Amino acid sequence: MSDLLALLDTPYFRAGLRLGLAALAAGWALRFAIGRDRPPIPVAGVLIAAATLAGLYLTGEQLGPAVPAVIAIAVGVLVARFARAPMWVQPLAAFPGAVWLAIGTPATTLSWVRILIAVLVPVAGYLISDFEMRHDKMGLGVIFFALATLGVFAAVPDTEQALILIAASVVVVLLAWPWVAGSLGPEGGYAVVAVFLVVIAAGGEGRPSSIIGSAACLGLLLLEPVIVRIRPSAIKLVTWVRQNWVGAMIASVPQFIVVVLCSRVAARFQTELPAVLVVALVFALASMAGFYGARRVNEAAVG
């Protein structure tokens, strides 16, 4: 307990906490400005990304092209949305910024991590946007992402940068729970994944398997859209709960389980291959559970 309290008293956590509170205040101010009866405002992802980058800057971390690259990612997605392009255009619009970030970031010296950043930013951003199209009214995108950041803290050997991300994310959760005022948003989904990957790359450099485990902590934000695309009835596995703060907690349990397994098992190996195999097993089991649950829902509906 004393070690945990010592971590919370570091300049990294304090910076993330202060900036997270500022982001939360900005989010709620915007919520009240546009009216409380409107749908959730899609700003939480941008707020988390901005607070984390600002915290990294204030604590002296080397950012490289992170700020302009993340802006390029978000602006690319925003332009695609305003142009009313199909949703599949958004990851293409985010890709140049993701490549810029991957090539220029000083957070890692590992080539495969740079490739991971370039690929996962557009792919994960697209999947998160798809996830939030169904679940933004419950705030699940913000909640699931905050759980993923807690997994990063448990996974990476160097936790300084992760403390900033965690503090900002956990505070901004109060924009989506217990009252749902905001969601990650399309632009924010891509931006926050980019920042997430930079943080895990920096914190996991000393044990590369922890980067794999940390990335996998995104969990159901990536899996659920794929499962629903294959088995549309799987959406009922979330919507069967009451659409309130209690229901959001219940719906978050599977994400929590995936985060624990990826951060405490996959991330602990000394080499990458066992971590990949564990992540593949966890994702396969989670997918099987989703398909089985969807079948049971269908059977119950028919019965």
Separation of the first and last Cα atoms = 51 Å
State the helical fraction. Answer: over 70%
The global form is globular
Biggest beta sheet attributes:
none
Structure annotation, total helices:
15
The H/E string reads HHHHHHHHHHHHHHH
- Mean pLDDT, to the nearest integer, reads 90
The total number of structural domains is 1
Indicate the low-confidence ranges by residue numbers. none
Observed structural traits:
globular; about 300 residues; single chain; mainly alpha
Question: Describe it for me?
Answer:
The structure is a single chain. The protein is mostly helical and 303 residues long. It has one domain (2-302). The chain is 74% helix and 0% strand. It has 15 helices and no strands. The protein has helices at residues 2-8, 11-34, 44-58, 66-82, 89-104, 111-135, 140-155, 160-172, 186-203, 209-216, 220-230, 236-239, 245-251, 253-264, 272-302. Helix 3 runs antiparallel to helix 8 (160-172). The radius of gyration is 18 Å and the shape is globular.
Topology:
Layout: H1 2-8, H2 11-34, H3 44-58, H4 66-82, H5 89-104, H6 111-135, H7 140-155, H8 160-172, H9 186-203, H10 209-216, H11 220-230, H12 236-239, H13 245-251, H14 253-264, H15 272-302
Describe this structure in a few short sentences.
The mean pLDDT is 90.
